[in-house]
Structure formats: C-alpha cells, structure tokens
C-alpha cells in the first residue's frame, strides 16, 4: 500500500479516537474506523485485493499505526477480543490520555 493511503487513514485517527470510549482495543478501533470512513477503509483494502489476506494486512497496519498517537492514547496491554469476522484474536488495549 502506498504511503499516501495510510496517510489518508491516519488523518482521521484523531477523529475516530475521539469517538471511542476511555478504554478500547484495536479491533474496536478498526471497526469504528471502517464504519465512520468507509471509502478510505475500502481504498486501503483494494490496495491488497490480490493478497490472500487483505483484511489481516490492512488491519495490522491500522493497529500498528495507533502507536503514532501517544498524545491521545497509551498502550495498556493486550487481551482476547473478537475481530470484525467475530474470530477471537489478541488485540492491543488502549486508554485515552488525560
């Protein structure tokens, strides 16, 4: 995926984080991002349409890039939660700063 695609997604992270509860996990963030910014989300997936696991690749990148927002959220651990396919996987837990 091009850097520009991820920059477009990252440009809305602050807005999506504001919609999240005080504590949330990466799966919840990805779902909210997809709901609120469907066009950007789909564009990211299209970049990996030829891959065997486009959702896994894009979701991994979305979750990893949450680390770029230490002024808004802090990583507080991990737990098991359901992803958008309702499969249980490990997800990073986040807490809003302040």
Topology:
Elements: H1 3-10, H2 13-19, E1 23-25, H3 26-36, H4 38-46, H5 54-64, E2 73-82, E3 88-96
Antiparallel strand pairs: 1-3, 2-3
Helix pairs in contact: 1-4, 2-3, 3-4
What would your notes on this structure say?
The protein is of the alpha+beta class. The protein has one domain (3-96). Helices cover 47% and strands 22% of the residues. It has a three-stranded antiparallel β-sheet with strand order 1-3-2. Helix 1 (3-10) packs antiparallel against helix 4, helix 2 (13-19) packs across helix 3 (26-36) and helix 3 packs across helix 4. The mean pLDDT is 93.
Structural class: alpha+beta
Q: How many helices in DSSP terms?
A: 5
**Estimated radius of gyration:** 13 Å
Distance between the first and last residues' Cα: 33 Å
Strand adjacency order, main sheet: 1-3-2
Give the SSE order as H and E letters. Answer: HHEHHHEE
Largest sheet data: 3 strands, antiparallel
Low-confidence stretches: none
Q: Any idea what the shape is?
A: globular
* Overall pLDDT: 93
Strand content: 15-25%
What portion of residues is helical? Answer: 40-55%
> Total domains, how many?
1
Query: How many DSSP E strands?
Result: 3
